[in-house]
Write a structure and sequence with these properties.
Elements lengths: L5 E4 L3 E5 L5 E6 L2 E4 L4 E4 L3 H18 L6 E6 L2 E5 L2 E2 L2 E8 L2 H7 L6 E11 L8 E2 L1 H6 L5 H24 L2 E12 L5 E4 L7 E5 L9 H4 L5 H12 L6
Antiparallel strand pairs: 1-2, 2-3, 3-7, 4-5, 6-7, 8-12, 9-10, 9-12, 10-11, 12-13, 12-14
Helix pairs in contact: 1-6
Bound molecules: cytidine-5'-diphosphate.
Family: Belongs to the SAICAR synthetase family.
Protein name: Phosphoribosylaminoimidazole-succinocarboxamide synthase
Catalytic activity: 5-amino-1-(5-phospho-D-ribosyl)imidazole-4-carboxylate + L-aspartate + ATP = (2S)-2-[5-amino-1-(5-phospho-beta-D-ribosyl)imidazole-4-carboxamido]succinate + ADP + phosphate + 2 H(+)
């Protein structure tokens, strides 16, 4: 067997080349980090849950006509995805004020927003992922106007699909972060992951948090909350 080539290692995932140059293998790690890597821990079982939950959401989105990089799960902690060049932007969609939005605008956490709010952050650890606007994106030549329009449109569609689906499971979709890539044909495609690491999920009845805020804010029972999300989704364990 050929040695595995590690293409990239991030805080929560590793990316490996496969024999097919158009496919990469993503391995979800048990590592948890917050506050730009300042807070770190290993949470046994997180890799399995995020791999399964992310695969579930990508399949749901595909069924609803939203193209994305997901191909298939190949093990409890791994999935194949289409190789794309990630656009260094974090596209955040919010339905309810929380986290940095509450701080920035002085809104009480939990205040519903009159309409979804999209924010763009530059993916740059050294700069602390600053909030940026479309002029910044243009001068930095990070994405074209057409690509940005497409990413924002897709982000709002993802919000509609996930928000409605999750509401049936008694889960409030407070906010989430998406990343996009450009494939070999030059098309923009939804990529990265969609999991309790990248979304805020609150129980609709109790407001109980079932996401990475349990880790960020030392609320305890992090893995139990991720398991609760997986159970409510009612997904199948294909591998
Ligand atoms: O999480 P924090 O309060 O630092 O930031 P936020 O801007 O309120 O985060 C908005 C949403 O994007 C939350 O669901 C975060 O989990 C997610 N996010 C992420 O997945 N990765 C980041 N680097 C920043 C935010």
């Amino acid at each position: 067997m050929k040695p595995e080539t590690l293409l990239y290692e991030g805080k929560a995932k590793q990316l490996f080349l496969t024999e097919d140059p158009a496919i990469v293998r993503v391995r979800y790690k048990d590592a948890a980090t917050a506050f730009n890597g300042e807070k770190k821990a290993t949470l046994a079982g997180k890799g399995v849950l995020n791999n399964r939950i992310s695969a579930f959401f990508f399949q749901l989105l595909r069924e609803q006509g939203i193209a994305n990089h997901f191909i298939k799960e190949i093990s409890p902690i791994e999935q194949w995805v289409k190789k794309v060049a990630i656009i260094p932007l974090e596209v955040v969609v919010r339905n309810v004020a929380a986290g940095s939005l509450s701080k920035r605008l002085g809104l009480t956490e939990g205040s519903p927003l009159r309409h979804p709010v999209i924010e763009l952050y530059l993916k740059d650890d050294a700069l602390g992922d600053p909030l940026i606007n479309e002029d910044h994106i243009s001068v930095l030549e990070i994405a074209t106007v057409a690509q940005l329009t497409e990413m924002k449109g897709t982000a709002l569609k993802v919000n509609e699909v996930l928000r409605n689906f999750l509401a049936q499971k008694n889960i409030l979709l407070v906010d989430f972060k998406l990343e996009f890539g450009v494939d070999d044909s030059g098309d923009v495609m939804l990529a990265d992951e969609i999991s309790p690491d990248t979304c805020r999920f609150w129980d609709m009845a109790t407001g109980n948090r079932m996401d990475k805020d349990r880790f960020r804010r030392d609320l305890g029972n992090v893995i139990e909350a991720y398991e609760e999300i997986w159970n409510r989704l009612g997904g199948r364990e294909d591998v």
